[in-house]
């Protein structure tokens, strides 16, 4: 038990706290220097927002350590014993254990979700009304309950029925992930936001010509009513296959010029042109394969080592708790290649209009999203999937 807990502490919790402290001190230092990119008021606001979020993040890491200790020490065994005592039938009890586990995880994380929501509201990002929050929560519980119920039922059936269950479990989960990329834009996302056809026909024609340039086929260009929930600006290409669509936040249309918007979409299409989406899917597949392989080889001996009882559901719960550790450790490698792909996408986005158009649009995004322009190199190395804006602007200038 102590070996696992020491590993969690020194490989996961302490490194994340150290990175947050480095970033916090770095921002605190630069918040007193001459503002860059942002005006003075926005610069100070962005610094304050980042520092508050980092302080909450440090508290969350400590909170997560306590929860990991509790789950591994007694939580999994206690939950399993309680469910198995009160529910007959091996399969049903195992399924109920996992459903109860995911419900408890959601409830336990709720305090920090509320805190972060209040911080976003204080800084003008969170625009949701109370009724909208309640509505979204009910929908999320309903959809999450159905999806997790299906996933856990199939996982448990595979674990009980197939010798090399971990391989078939990987195939199922990877296929399920791809299916969700098709289902999400068409059926789930519209339950939370309204998607309307783009009314600006001139802009629509420019986007269509841009997509044709790289051979990107979509089932439409839509404007999402993001402003009713959040004040941030964004745009993305969502879905796979015939469900692919272009989604523009209404906040983006209000704040960014047409040239800037084309440059931003050009950046996103640069990822498509360079097969970054396919590379990302392959990378996720490799990571998932390794996790399920570890589940098949290590989790059962680990359950015995920890003295955790609960059958196959215990293996799933331990994986859920410990999988973030190796993912955190390989994150710098993933983000390194991601940052390189962002520079290439910037080059393509600039070629679609001009370097000036993309630079102006990126600066506008940072201003509206209140992103602090300075970041500690170690924090950037571990966490940033995109290069800092200063580096992106320098690369565009050169």
Describe the model.
The chain has 398 residues and is mostly helical. The protein contains 14 helices and four strands. The chain has helices at 2-30, 40-86, 90-122, 130-161, 165-188, 201-214, 250-255, 258-273, 276-306, 312-322, 324-352, 355-369, 377-383, 389-397; strands spanning 195-197, 221-224, 235-238, 245-249. A four-stranded mixed beta sheet has the order 1-2-4-3. Strand 3 and strand 4 form a beta hairpin. Helix 3 runs parallel beside helix 10 and helix 6 runs parallel beside helix 8 (258-273).
Global structural class: mainly alpha
Q: Taking strands numbered 1, 2, ... along the chain, how are they ordered across the largest sheet?
A: 1-2-4-3
C-alpha Rg, in Å? 23 Å
Oligomer: single chain
Mean pLDDT: 89
**What is the count of helical runs?**
14
Low-confidence blocks of residues: none
User: What coarse outline follows from CA principal-axis ratios?
Assistant: globular
- Alpha-carbon distance between the two ends: 54 Å
Share in β-strands: under 5%
| Number of extended strands | 4
Query: What series of H and E elements makes up the topology?
Result: HHHHHEHEEEHHHHHHHH
User: How many strands, what sense, and barrel or not for the largest sheet?
Assistant: 4 strands, mixed
Helix content: over 70%
